[in-house]
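Two proteins, back to back. First:
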Amino acid sequence: MPRRYALGRAEEATNPDSMRAALAEFVSTLIFVFAGEGSVLALDKLYRETEPPASGLVMIALAHALALFSAVSASINISGGHVNPAVTFGALVGGRISVLRAFYYWVAQLLGAIVASLLLRLVTNGMRPVGFYVASGVGEVHGLIMEMVMTFGLVYTVYATAVDPKRGSLGIIAPLAIGFIVGANILVGGPFDGASMNPARAFGPALVGWRWRNHWIYWLGPFVGGGLAALIYEYTVIPTDPLPHHTHHQPLAPEDY
């Protein structure tokens, strides 16, 4: 199908659909970050005096997977259910979203993450968000590559289940598949660099907790990995010729996917 690269029309800036989509991204990102970072703080609370057991990583992965499944499901028919600046970037480089709407999404996602982190600090009686950092003994370059690979897998899954015009009924399980890949990646990458895959998920806790160690990794890695996944899927997997009539499917959200 044809790719459309656009800065965005002037009327799009004040279009009610754009406002609703940005609000959906704000709320969904808030839901995701609150549950995700909250699970980390809960584990810290439970095992303040000792090292958390290996099952703690499973708890964190499950919390992120379930929260992202819910967040994407809640917004997929309104905004496309990005809930992640790297996913929005993938949609942008794939020509699925205008620059203006991508900017709206990025602002909404970052604000959602910040508000979620502030709420967590309030309800936990001042516990400082942990955020992300590269584990001791793991180099920054290794952490960067880890983030690139994991986010590549995430955005590739988004494209396969939510974007591909041949997805058919597979689109129904898109939120579940997206949640699962994030949970699985946390089980793999969590002990090494925390497994963010999401600049907003990293930025909110970093700002509120004022923890900036290795923070650049959690922007560059997801953007590079997500952008590569979008380009590869967009230009090697999705057909450029019009599909037969019976294989056409409506996009999940207008002008997004």
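And the second protein:
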Amino acid sequence: MLDAKTIEIIKSTVPVLEVHGQTITKKFYETMFKNHPELLNVFNHANQRQGKQSTALANAVYAAAAHIDRLEEILPVVKGIAQKHRALGILPEQYPIVGENLLAAIKMVLGDAATDEIIEAWGKAYGVIADVFISVEAGMYQEAEQQPGGWRGFRRFIVERKVKESNVITSFYLKPEDGNEIASYLPGQYITVRVKPEGQSFTHLRHYSLSTSPGHAYYRISVKREEAMADRPAGIVSTYLHDDVHEGDFLELSSPAGEFILDQSGELPVVLISGGVGLTPMVSMLETLLEQQPSREVVYIHAARNGSQHAMKEHISQLTQDHPALRSYLVYEAPAAGESCDKTGFIDLPWLQSVTDSNADFYFCGPTPFMQAVNRALKEWGVPENRIHFEFFGPADSLD
């Protein structure tokens, strides 16, 4: 427990973190990777280049400081981050490295304003926060290893099938090399792939949502090829999977993880909304609902640039024909000549109101601007926050 004086000092730094938080976390990563380059085997280099990781860390540090006297209030955030840490294989002995470099970054950015008293208080606070993460993650490691078919760390899987779903998305069907049972998962969860493409100095890890319902003898991930754009290079892992990984090759996976899951305890209608490759967790949820709650009303809305980038179109169409409780809709931003869809352009509130009811549980996933638009529409409609569920691909961002 922290003493009252330490809590007071930490809370007094909250306004400073609002202003300088991202500068501190950017400096933190620069310093840590310089001192411990081996950690580049764990962290997503693309998120580092784009500033996503430093932004996410700044938000987490700010939240921890603001709630330092009641950390239980940010436990849901802690659990989400801890799930990713467990999936990446973050170890307790790495936390002191993070703490040492975070304190150094605070001192470098704030200069004389970071008094010895402030640094000492933050050292104590970091120790408490780190202990919370280590404790939560220890339980997750144990659960992942001890469940039926579970394992700790990374396990080799063979690519049994590789299926092109669209011009940009390919599915990989993965079965364990040892032929033993695999861990089940909850619809919406992800697995983590570890690869070391030729010519790369470090291993690269990526989380990919499982794109089919649980209960199979394989895992399926559906990966979008991330091409180079003006603001970022091509995706190292996605292009490697598309170009260099073939049927019969092996991939290393950690067991399923993630806090973005389908709540099957209710009876309200469910509305699933996906944009682009955001369909992966939605399809897992959709298949699970149809298999386990076939009478529960489901609306599935998918948005894509056009038909050439629309994965699993025939599969969803067939499910819609086979299940009376399911209605599905297509939204194409710019359909090609002759392509049909239910709406051209983008999803907006008037159209949502015409095809769904606000008295439902809403789940959505896709690019951040897409999710911001959906979130705004649902809030404007008056959908309660406890019935709005979403997931970011990559570090947590803001939908405000």
